[in-house]
Amino acid sequence: MTDTLFIRPMARNDLEPLLEIVRGTGMFTRAEAEVAYELMDIWLNRPEQKDYIIYVAEENGELAGYVCYGPTPATESTFDLYWIVVHPALQRRGIGGKLLAFAEKECRKRGGRLMVIETSSTEKYAGTRNFYRLNGYEVEGRIKDFYAVGDDRLIFTRRFQ
Questions:
Q1: Is the Cβ–Cβ distance between 156 and 139 less than 8 Å?
Q2: From the centroid of its chain, how far is CA 134?
Q3: Cα 51–63–71 angle (5° rounding)?
Q4: Is this structure's pTM higher than 0.90?
Q5: Domain 1-93 - what CATH class?
Q6: Is the N or the C terminus of the chain less surrounded, counting Cβ atoms within 10 Å?
Q7: Structure letter (DSSP) for residue 153
């Protein structure tokens, strides 16, 4: 666990370092990294939008990761967690859990009652799925062969009291 973590809104000068973190994890395809960029660009350049909220974590003044979440369009009090990424050298130190807890707290402040997270069923994402389960999420749905043949979309949820 880290005690020197600071969470703040993403700023323009965070863009390239965050994209380096995304690429450095080795978890995401080029197309997925492009989606990460698109959401960051929306956050930075369209302040009127309400769909994507991005906060970064800093440890000792260095970017450690980020979380992207937002209200699910056309729902009442449901939020999506789109991205949670931690620098590879800083993983397994509680940063991801703190980013997730921060996003959940912010969602609850906005009246959120349900958080939805989608991820892959492949072995590569076993640690990710375990992380969600350890943080109180359950698989509520599966769409077979969604991302590719043999790569199902798993839908995790957590309801807030």
A1: yes
A2: 15
A3: 15
A4: yes
A5: alpha beta
A6: C
A7: E
